[in-house]
């Protein structure tokens, strides 16, 4: 066995079979195998008192794990000694000319002596002094190592994002459960079983979402581990004897090229809404006959004769500027006021993509600009951005949505609660709870100003 083989055998004896690196804080188990302490702990399944040896699968108990200080010292010594041992190996002699091989042919990937360099077979080849070839090889390997380190960081960022989204998913499930429990409370006496079924569906969605995120995390971890192994191979190549480094360089770079092309992918998750059985029938028992108040309508808004629909007009109407009228906000209020009780009404929106509907204080500001996030209004806002349609309210924020044709609005003044429903499928859209209601409340409507992406049309109150 030559010196190089002895050096490699020594390294193998001082290497952990799990992480493939020199031992760090090594421990020995009763079957005689040695591992880094951290590597062995990572192989344990949960926090069981017993586990299996990664090499022979023998049963190990906590008391069987003993520190191996001598091996740790030997490993540290071997790691420092290896480069010096490799450098001490003398250059080989050319079999044909008996001269030292001090040159390297990049095309043939082999060492040459001075006489070989002059041979016709290497006339058009790139032949470099050995030291220069080694430096060039090191530069390429270091470049690959830097790329692998950057890719490693990308995977670290991706894994952090997966962990963050798992936490968001956990938070979302609680918020969604609270919403559904609140809705079923209205019909609790005769829909108890339906409530439990809905929660089970949410739990299943949560389980499915978490399962997909877990799979995504496992895939990223596997790719991350492959990346680390490849990084270790590249680092190992830098420690090899110059000839071995040059000969292995091509294969090492090709194996790592595929890993560098992979991008860490983080999936998103969604929640599906479902109709709430019996909710429509219950809400209809609180229906209110709503009509529009012409005294509050902005001059650009055109009301129907029956005061049941409103649309935008380009030319403002010549109307008295009374104190009840909106002069800037494209809004109109319902004629009815509410100071107690439960009330429900429905609004048809047709194919309009931008609108605002909800509830406001009777004391809402009528002159000048009015913000949708004002403390005097609790509204649902629809708008389009590119090809996507969004819903917004001040409590729940933004929600990607399909265009909604009909919205149901439920007001429980005494419970300080407002909810919005998709009338077509009977599902909850959003809600406001524990609101600071003071004084009379009124229905609020705005068809918004039409533009290129906003479909013109009317907001119409549905007769029930």
Key structural traits:
single chain; 464 residues; alpha+beta; 7-stranded antiparallel beta sheet; 6-stranded antiparallel beta sheet; 37% helix
Mean pLDDT: 83
Sequence stretches where pLDDT stays below 50 over 5 or more residues: none
- The strand line-up of the biggest sheet is 9-10-21-12-17-18-19
- Please give the largest β-sheet: 7 strands, antiparallel
For this entry, what is the oligomeric state of its chains? single chain
Instruction: Name the beta content range.
Output: 15-25%
Question: Which descriptor suits the 3D outline?
Answer: elongated
Helix content: 25-40%
- Structural class given helices, strands, pairing? alpha+beta
H/E element order: HEEHEEEHEEHEHHHHEEEEEEEEEEEEE
The total strand number stands at 21
- How many helices does DSSP assign? 8
What is the terminal separation in angstroms?
96 Å
Q: Give the C-alpha Rg.
A: 37 Å
């Amino acid at each position: 066995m030559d010196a190089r083989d002895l050096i490699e055998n020594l390294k193998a004896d001082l290497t952990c079979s799990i992480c493939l690196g020199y031992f760090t804080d090594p421990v020995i188990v009763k079957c005689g195998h040695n591992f880094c302490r951290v590597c062995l702990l990572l192989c344990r399944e949960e926090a069981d008192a017993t586990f299996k040896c990664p090499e022979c699968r023998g049963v190990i108990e906590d008391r069987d794990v003993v520190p191996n200080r001598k091996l740790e010292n030997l490993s540290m010594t071997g790691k420092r000694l290896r480069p010096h041992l490799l450098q001490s190996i003398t250059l080989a002699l050319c079999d044909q000319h008996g001269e030292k091989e001090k040159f390297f042919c990049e095309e043939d990937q082999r060492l040459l002596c001075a006489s070989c360099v002059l041979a016709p077979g290497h006339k058009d080849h790139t032949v470099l002094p050995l030291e220069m070839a080694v430096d060039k090889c090191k530069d390429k390997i270091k470049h690959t190592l830097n790329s692998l380190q950057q890719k490693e960081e990308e995977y670290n960022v991706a894994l952090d994002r997966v962990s963050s989204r798992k936490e968001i998913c956990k938070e979302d499930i609680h918020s969604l459960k609270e919403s559904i429990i609140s809705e079923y409370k209205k019909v609790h006496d005769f829909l108890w079983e339906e409530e439990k079924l809905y929660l089970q569906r949410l739990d299943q969605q949560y389980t499915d979402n978490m399962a997909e995120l877990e799979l995504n995390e496992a895939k990223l971890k596997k790719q991350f581990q492959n990346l680390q192994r490849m990084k270790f191979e590249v680092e190992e190549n830098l420690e090899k004897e110059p000839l071995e480094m040059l000969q292995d360089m091509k294969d090492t770079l090709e194996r790592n090229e595929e890993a560098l092309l992979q991008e860490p992918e983080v999936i998103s998750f969604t929640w599906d809404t479902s109709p709430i059985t019996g909710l429509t029938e219950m809400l209809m028992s609180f229906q209110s006959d709503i009509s529009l108040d012409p005294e509050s309508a902005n001059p650009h808004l055109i009301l129907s004769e029956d005061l049941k629909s409103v649309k935008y007009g380009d030319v403002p109407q010549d109307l008295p500027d009374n104190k009840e009228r909106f002069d800037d906000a494209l809004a109109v209020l319902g004629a009815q006021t509410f100071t107690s009780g439960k009330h429900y009404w429905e609004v048809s929106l047709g194919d309009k993509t931008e609108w605002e509907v909800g509830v406001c204080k009777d004391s809402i500001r009528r002159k000048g600009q009015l913000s949708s996030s004002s403390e005097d209004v609790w509204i649902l806002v629809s708008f389009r951005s590119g090809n996507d349609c969004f819903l917004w309210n001040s409590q729940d924020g933004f929600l990607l949505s399909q265009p909604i044709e009909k919205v149901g609005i439920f007001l429980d003044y005494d419970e300080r609660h407002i909810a919005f429903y998709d009338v077509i499928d009977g599902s909850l859209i959003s809600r406001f709870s524990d609101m600071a209601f003071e004084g009379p409340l009124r229905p609020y409507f705005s068809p918004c100003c039409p533009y290129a992406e906003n479909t013109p049309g009317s907001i119409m109150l549905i007769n029930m």
